[in-house]
Amino acid sequence: MKKSRRAAPAAGHPTPAAAVEPENAVELRDVSVSYGTTVALSGLSLAVARGETVALLGPSGSGKSTALKAIAGFERPSSGRVLLDGVDVTDASPARRGIGVVVQQYALFPHMRVDANVAYGLKARRMPKAEIAARVKAMLEMVGMEGHAHKLPRQLSGGQQQRVAIARALAIRPQVLLLDEPLSALDASLRAEMLLELQALRAELPDIAMVYVTHDQSEALTLADRIAVMRNARLEEIGTAEQLYSRPAGAFTAKFLGGASLLPAISTTVVPDGGAMGSVLAGAHRMKAVAPFAVNPGGRVLVAVRPHAWKLAAGSPAAAAGWAGDGAGDGYTVNSLPGRVESVQWRGAGHRLQVDLIGLSERVTVDLPAMSAVPAPGDLVVLTVEPQHAVLVPAGEL
Ligand SMILES: Nc1ncnc2c1ncn2[C@@H]1O[C@H](COP(=O)(O)OP(=O)(O)OP(=O)(O)O)[C@@H](O)[C@H]1O
């Protein structure tokens, strides 16, 4: 959670309760949305602080857009409450919420010029003409579109249209900006460019709360202070990118966000409160990994290892020769697992290997940096991982 930007009350002069501003610009309390028999969102509780960007990340159909519609007021929750700045707006119309919304397909009015599109929400609020003109000019400058004010949307590129859509959403000076896959209609290079622009824009709007829906983790990692991972209409996990990436609390997040391999294992140590190193047996292999939660001997866990965390043991593939005989290695070398390379793929920044672990019937993904010696398909290798780069997650359903 972001730190409050407000000054703390002076010592001895506590702020009266009534004057305390609510910290959260957006709050969903146990919100569910159903479409007929389809439960699109189930019991979502989420708070977004002023100045904070939260990304809703998850596979298709996981309820991300529905959550956004509940905040904007386009869908009424079947249960639960929606609060903006501490005020319950569950029954308020979208217009009364004063939220800026940017959706995937620009959604500009095709028959209106760029400047009229940006002015639209201001006219609806009956702002004086001179003020509208000044605001439109400022907004178009902010998104680098000041030279296109008199064009129609069809005369603009996809990226330019999306910039105008952002200017239009920001023109009403919303306290909350919702973005639903705003870059997904753009090609890869334009998407990367717009991502940088959104990052710059974010810095110019320090007090706006943003909720950003995406299924692209690089967008979420670039823009968000916190990431909410959605799955099957529910919030799976929420945290900073760093927390979710390196210490996922569940197998789904480990796989979805970090692309981690998950090795089934049995705990051999007691870690009462989590946060310490745990020891496990993955098949016949002894492994040490960070245990972010309490584990007991005999408990079933998964060892999550991200593709970049694997290393080839020195001397691999030759080092693997001694391991192949009994299929399980000697069982004494910690965090060293023998395997056979199934495939090798050149990926520009390095090589991606698929390696079948011997004795574990698991295939793991290994990303090797460029310049490292690359084995060939069929080679025996020994994979290693530093204990601090392996993390235990509960053996949940994927
Ligand atoms: N208007 C609707 N009528 C009926 N079902 C709907 C409607 N809108 C969404 N759904 C269903 O609700 C579920 C959640 O949809 P939602 O659009 O929120 O998912 P999402 O995570 O945003 O997916 P995507 O990434 O594909 O946009 C899906 O099963 C979807 O089919």
UniProtKB/TrEMBL annotation:
SMART domains listed in its UniProt record:
AAA
Provide a Gene Ontology MF annotation, just one.
Answer: ATP binding
Q: Which organism is it from?
A: Arthrobacter silviterrae
Write down the InterPro entries for this protein, in alphabetical order.
AAA+_ATPase, ABC_SmlMolc_Importer, ABC_transporter-like_ATP-bd, ABC_transporter-like_CS, Mo/tungstate-bd_C_term_dom, P-loop_NTPase, Transp-assoc_OB_typ2
State the name under which the record lists this protein: ABC transporter ATP-binding protein
- The ABC transporter domain, residue ranges: 26-257
Its keywords, alphabetically, are: ATP-binding, Nucleotide-binding, Transport
